[in-house]
Amino acid sequence: MGKFEDMEFSLIPEERYEDVIHHLRNNFFADEPLNSAVSLVQPGDPHAELEEHSLNTLKDGLSQMAVHRDTGQVIGVALNGIQGPDDLAASQAKLTTLTDEKFRQIFDLLYGANLTLDLFRQHGVDRIFECRILSVDKRFRGRGLARELLRRSEEVARENGFKVFKEDATGFFSQKVAESVGLQTVHELRYEDYTSPDTGEVIFKTKKPHESLKIMVKILQ
Ligand code: ACO
């Protein structure tokens, strides 16, 4: 019997967007290492900004899901979006208008780290394929599902002619998954070194074994 016999993989059609959000509320919003470090939400709770971020990414039409055959439930997703050269600066400017301080802190870190790189110029491209959210249902973790979703995402990127495949991997397991499909770290920021300019305190006290943010890239030939 195949490893993923009980699952079906596909691009995510619009009629499943709500089910994807439901999955993320229960498995990603509270669990992702940075969200968890700042207690962004309780498991199951909605989060307006994260849901907008997820829906905007879904609309790019490049996201992958795994559905459990028996129940029809969405049990894993890779939400993939297209990044353009001016998007980071625009997203960063928009952050200042948001009221959720914790959400702002997380995206300040992510956008700031990305702005230290110039992947567009470095690779001579005007769009980057970005895996923004990788999430697997708690009941199905540790079976290689995230790896399979990322592998399939890479295929989607290739089919759509992207040269750069990128992920901001915020925790140890997503970093292992990305390495296992050939992404390499181009920038690493240790959370213990990321401190408040006012108080000197570490901003993200992540749980073990999550120690750093890694911006990871694979060049698709
Ligand atoms: N304990 C020990 N090892 C683990 C665990 C665990 N809890 N979870 C995964 N691993 C290991 C696996 O053994 C495997 O290593 P191996 O290849 O050496 O065997 C590797 O990590 C990858 O395992 P997968 O089974 O492919 O990953 P999984 O399907 O469990 O999903 C994921 C990993 C997506 C990180 C999941 O734990 C999750 O949804 N976490 C909450 C959300 C999150 O943190 N997402 C990533 C943030 S970054 C981003 O979204 C771009």
From TrEMBL:
Family listed: Belongs to the acetyltransferase family. AANAT subfamily.
Keyword list, A-Z: Acyltransferase, Transferase
Protein's pathway: Aromatic compound metabolism; melatonin biosynthesis; melatonin from serotonin: step 1/2
GO MF annotations, alphabetized: aralkylamine N-acetyltransferase activity
Segments forming domain N-acetyltransferase: 7-209
Keyword Transferase appears in the UniProt entry: yes
Pfam families: Acetyltransf_1
CDD domains: NAT_SF
Keyword set includes Transferase: yes
Enzyme class of the recorded protein, top EC level: transferase
Descriptive protein name: aralkylamine N-acetyltransferase
Catalysed reaction, written as an equation: serotonin + octadecanoyl-CoA = N-octadecanoyl-serotonin + CoA + H(+); serotonin + (9Z)-octadecenoyl-CoA = N-(9Z-octadecenoyl)-serotonin + CoA + H(+); dopamine + hexadecanoyl-CoA = N-hexadecanoyl-dopamine + CoA + H(+); serotonin + hexadecanoyl-CoA = N-hexadecanoyl-serotonin + CoA + H(+)
EC number: 2.3.1.87
